[in-house]
Amino acid sequence: MTKIKTSNYTVYLLIAIFIFAIMLIELNYEYETETLLDNFKITKGKIIDLGNPSGKGGSSPIYKYEVDSKVFKSNMRSNSYCGFNLQHIPFNKIKKHYFPVVYIPYKPETSRILLKIEDYQKYNVPIPDTLAGVLVEYFNCDNYKVIRREGKQTKIVKIN
Known about the structure:
Helices cover 32% and strands 26% of the residues. It is of the alpha+beta class and 160 residues long. The protein is globular, with a radius of gyration of 20 Å.
């Protein structure tokens, strides 16, 4: 059996290519986010699969949404749900809810589902009363709580 000898140079080159690829993916994500902030439309979407809820194996939750009668599916990044281990989320409780999805009008496959309270603030989208409790209970990255006021819109406040 012949052994293939690899030089340190080859190993360093492969590591550099891998790091460069990760940086390109991250830069593209940031570019898409900036583009979304500048020019987005809103539709509604549903989480259809939590992926691997234990967070092992790199699988991520999937959501679907519709734009102009065409259905799109997208994976969520861990920062869209606070990077939590999703085992604590009862899928049967969240699968019935529709969440706002922002997308680029000329490229609707580029989207973000709004789960974190910070995302609603970033995109200046009001939090629907029907989602306030779900967001605080399952997607509460910081310390927020729901304040329900009789006859007025539900308010979510940060606890210091």
